[in-house]
Specification:
Layout lengths: L16 H14 L13 E5 L2 E4 L4 E4 L12 H11 L11 H11 L8 E5 L2 H16 L3 E5 L8 H4 L15 E4 L12 H18 L4 E6 L17 H9 L3 E5 L24 E4 L10 E5 L1 H10 L10 H16 L2 H19 L6 E7 L2 E9 L4 E2 L1 H13 L2 E2 L1 E3 L5 E4 L7 H19 L2
Parallel strand pairs: 3-14, 5-6, 5-7, 7-8, 8-9
Antiparallel strand pairs: 1-2, 2-3, 4-10, 9-10, 11-12, 12-13, 12-16, 15-16
Helix pairs in contact: 2-9, 3-9, 4-8, 6-7, 10-12, 11-12
């Protein structure tokens, strides 16, 4: 999964002399662990709204990047960061009122039982902290995740991020369950099936002397292949982990901040109450700020045993960026836009599917959409090779997306939240032409 759509050494001869020199320089300085997107990597120099521009002046419709959640270089966020940088940037061991203003405003968007927040720099740190809290309050260590989940890169979190690949070992305390795939499993029984899988994982832990600490899921299952429907299917699994004495952690790094279009947070679509919620990438529109929202009694339990301090988590510039993002989401009604534009895109793809045999399924919520690419619709045969060709041909035609899923055959569409109807029309036209051209070859 970590290598999906990645540039490889075999693609080097297809690059211009300038880009080949830059790629070689990058490899020499940064080493081999880093990856580049696309067979022909994009040399991006500028971003504005839902567009990116490369070094040759070519513009790309960005239908992938959720980091710039309110649009690349949004003026309100740029101004907030710039203004605050010129005044103060320090840590959270001083009284700083804007931090409290932001924390109270952000907390107000959550169910009332989630009353406190701890700030970090990255989603990986937030999930690492969630694991520490879960272990503290439950006395357990067991973690349940889906088969291809991604939750972060710290040592502890990489052990329950199976999408990092076979060379990153899962922890002995970790159990995986199949993602709730409504394309291949009856949607009527999906919730019961997922609950039963979680219960089996819990039983397996206990058999090996492992006490459950938490079930953690990204409510859109973004790495597993993007599964959003039917709303409510997560409730049984949450009940199961609670019955076993563990916590439910909603990883909102990708589905959060209005992306799913129904509400601010992805878990809300399922009518469930998490014990912990982790936040990340979209929170600062590119500025590194993340956090964890929790039931106060959980933080109280942890705080009696340990102190928490993060030098850069919640610093004044991060707070300025985060609060600006929150205000833009409200002022520009971006949750409504995600709902309406997302529905328009899914409807358009369903229409394209009537003439493009490669499309087996379209699914998602708001501006988080998955398109299952298959070689045989009746058999629902995954076609990862065709998916890779589509992603790279779209890049050539000026549209950026990626892919997901265990067979890397799900087109992953996740644009900045201001992505509107006109952008959707451009995306649909180019997608239709691209798949048509590739199917004709």
């Amino acid at each position: 999964m970590a290598m999906t759509n990645a540039f490889s050494q075999s693609d080097m001869n297809n690059l211009s002399e300038r880009d080949r020199t830059l790629v070689e320089r990058r490899a020499r300085i940064l080493g081999p662990a880093y990856r580049l997107f696309y067979q022909n990597p994009v040399n991006i120099v500028r971003g504005e709204g839902v567009f990116l521009e490369d070094a040759d002046g070519k513009r790309y419709l960005d239908a992938y990047n959720n980091v710039a959640s309110v649009g690349h270089c949004h003026p309100a966020v740029v101004e907030a960061i710039t203004r605050q940088t010129a005044v103060l940037n320090t840590h959270t061991r001083y009284i700083y009122e804007p931090l409290l203003d932001y924390a109270e405003d952000l907390i107000s968007t959550f169910p009332v039982h989630l009353g406190q927040i701890m700030l970090t720099c990255t989603g990986s740190e937030a999930n690492d902290l969630a694991f520490r809290l879960a272990k503290s309050v439950t006395g357990g260590t067991g973690v349940i995740v889906t088969d291809l989940a991604y939750h972060g890169l710290t040592n502890a979190v990489s052990e329950f991020s199976p999408s990092l690949g076979a060379f990153v070992d899962l922890g002995a305390h970790v159990r995986t369950v199949p993602a709730p795939d409504a394309y291949r499993t009856s949607s009527a029984s999906l919730g019961e099936t997922f609950k039963a899988d979680v219960e089996r994982a819990i039983a397996g832990m206990k058999r090996h002397g492992i006490k459950p600490a938490m079930l953690i899921v990204d409510a859109i299952f973004s790495s597993d292949g993007i599964f959003a429907e039917p709303a409510g299917f997560l409730k049984g699994a949450v009940d199961a982990i609670h019955a076993a004495g563990g916590l439910f952690v909603a990883d909102e790094v990708q589905p959060g901040f209005g992306r799913t279009g129904d509400s601010m947070w992805g878990f809300e679509r399922h009518g469930i109450l998490p014990d912990l919620v982790t936040l990340g990438k979209p929170m600062g529109n590119g500025y590194p700020v993340a956090g964890l929202v929790a039931r106060p009694e959980i933080i109280a339990d942890f705080g009696e045993k340990a102190r928490y301090f993060n030098t850069f988590g919640g610093n004044p510039v991060a707070v300025a960026a985060g609060h600006a993002v929150l205000k833009v989401i409200r002022d520009e009604r971006l949750i409504d836009n995600a709902k309406n534009t997302g529905a328009l895109i899914r409807k358009g793809i369903a229409e394209i599917a009537t003439r493009r045999a490669s499309i087996g399924d379209v699914r998602g919520a708001g501006l988080f959409i998955g398109i299952e690419i298959v070689s045989d619709r009746e058999k629902k045969t995954p076609d990862g090779a065709m998916t890779t060709r589509i992603v790279n041909e779209l890049r050539h035609r000026g549209v950026l997306i990626s892919s997901a899923g265990p067979k890397a055959n799900v087109l992953k569409i996740r644009p900045p939240l201001p992505f509107g109807p006109a952008h959707a029309g451009q995306l649909l036209t180019i997608l239709d032409e691209t798949i048509g051209a590739l199917e004709a070859r």
